Amino acid sequence: MKRFPALLCVLLTGLILMGADGCSSDPNVEGAKLDLRNKDYDRALSNLDTALSNNPDNAEAWELKGRVLTEKAFETMDPAEHISLIADMVEAFDRAESIDPLLTETIMRNKAIAYVREFERGIQAFNRGSNDSAEYISAADYFGSAAVIQPDSAGAYVNQAYAYLNGGAEMEAAQPFEKALELGDTDVETYRFLSRIYMNNDRADEAVTLLETAAGLYPGNIDLQAELLNAYQIAGQVDRALETYAAAVSENPDNKLFRYNYGSLLVQVERYDDAIAELEAAVALDPEYANAQYNLGAAFINKAVAVNEQINEKDDALRENRSSMSNDEITAAEAEIDALADERRSLFGAAITPLEAARGLFEAAGEDATGVCQALFQSYVQNNMLDKAEEVSECAGTNG
Questions:
Q1: What pLDDT tens digit does each residue of the chain (400 aa) get?
Q2: C-alpha count within 13 angstroms, C-beta hemisphere, residue 280
Q3: 235, 204 Cβ separation under 8 angstroms
Q4: Residue boundaries of the structural domains of the chain
Q5: Closest by CA position to 73, among listed 29, 114, 122
Q6: DSSP character for 38?
Q7: Distance (Å, whole) CA 311 – CA 231
Q8: Buried b (16+ CB within 10 A) or exposed e, 299-327
Q9: Cβ(245)–Cβ(258) under 8 Å?
Q10: What separation in angstroms does the CA of 341 have from each of 177, 228, 297, 379?
Q11: Separation of alpha carbons 264 and 278, rounded Å
Q12: CA angle 193, 197, 201 (to 5 degrees)
């Protein structure tokens, strides 16, 4: 779950804050410069406060105060005090820049150095989190502080979110993930983790919107498509899902993932013939698409079960009304039931080929094939293929 930009691999030794050159007409500012060189930060700040009380628009004093606060902050070990000093540092630099735009280049460089140093503190705290989970929250605070220094840094927000997640503070992770996306982050994991936070906190509609955006960026990402499908279902937006995937299939008929997702949705809404057509198209595009083979078999079985329900209804009606029916009516009803029974058997038979393919693919990949074997067992029995049913019974867990 860690995500640290390459920037942080740079050694920070030797980075020196830049300041304005020349002498100041204010003796308090000159005194503060000497105090900074002597690392007497409190005295330097006192001198600068005096200078600023005399002239609140003294840009040089504000810029120097920012540098003093920077050095003091990075020699302060208490996290809360350190972060407070960083906030004061940013305020001082911003005030200096607003008064004298000629200081912009110097201030930007000093902020960039402080950002890297703050980010490094976040990394160090994150790494300590493996031994003390509370350190993850400290890491989140440091990454958040880095974002205060460089508010346009998506990386700071993303890492803050990951730190919160590692520290068990899921709700707190949402805002920095959202901010990262606002700033242009397009990493697929940012979308996925944020969508899961939404899903876990009764915000399924927002998860759908987010995942639709992500799916547009990464149309071939199977995991992302699966999460979008799940989000549609939890949000109760099955109709929207059907429309989305129908359009996707129409625009990209050779996309096996779209065919698979659309077909799987059609199974759920009991449109079995349409589902079978889509899933057959998916396995035609990729015969080794194990999930598509399995769902194709499941579509045949589910249709067989639906036919079986019709048989039961007609059989119940025949038994209930037989005494009042003519011989021709009874014969016609029995013929209809027999035809449905043949259809049921045929559907179970049609499920066998894709299920056998799915079993082989699951087992070759070292994945659990129990569900596939159970479906196969049922299909074999329905077609009186008892030897094959016996062979698959152990895998299906039905031989006990």
A1: 455 443 333 334 444 455 554 555 789 999 999 999 999 999 999 999 999 999 999 999 999 999 999 999 999 999 999 999 999 999 999 999 999 999 999 999 999 999 999 999 999 999 999 999 999 999 999 999 999 999 999 999 999 999 999 999 999 999 999 999 999 999 999 999 999 999 999 999 999 999 999 999 998 888 898 899 889 989 999 999 999 899 989 988 999 999 999 999 999 999 999 999 999 999 999 999 999 999 999 999 999 999 999 999 999 999 999 999 999 999 999 999 999 999 999 999 999 999 999 999 999 999 999 999 999 999 999 999 999 999 999 999 887 5
A2: 11
A3: yes
A4: 291-396
A5: 114
A6: T
A7: 35
A8: bbbbbbeebbeebeeeeeebeeeeeeeee
A9: yes
A10: 55, 38, 18, 14
A11: 9
A12: 165
Rounded to the nearest angstrom, the gap between the alpha carbon of residue 348 and the centroid of all alpha carbons in its chain is 38
**DSSP-assigned letters across all residues of 113-182:** HHHHHHHHHHHHHHHHTTT-THHHHHHHHHHHHHHHHSTT-HHHHHHHHHHHHHTT-HHHHHHHHHHHHH
CATH architecture of 291-396: Alpha Horseshoe (1.25)
Instruction: Identify the burial level of 243 via C-beta atoms within 10 angstroms of its C-beta, where 0-12 means exposed, 13-18 middle and 19 or more buried.
Output: exposed
DSSP letter at 321?
Answer: H
* φ, ψ of residue 369 in degrees (nearest 5): -105, 15
DSSP 8-state assignment for residue 325: S
User: CB–CB of 41/83 below 8 Å?
Assistant: no
What are the CA-CA distances from residue 168 to residues 47, 55, 161, 163, 182 (Å)? 44, 48, 11, 9, 24
Cα 176-178-182 angle, rounded to 5 deg: 110
Q: Which residue has the tokens 């549609």?
A: 232
Print burial letters for 104-134: b (CB count within 10 Å at least 16), e (below 16).
eebbeebbebbbbbbbbbbbebbeebeeeee
Determine the Cα–Cα distance for residues 154 and 186; give it in Å rounded to an integer.
10
Distance, first Cα to last Cα, the chain: 42
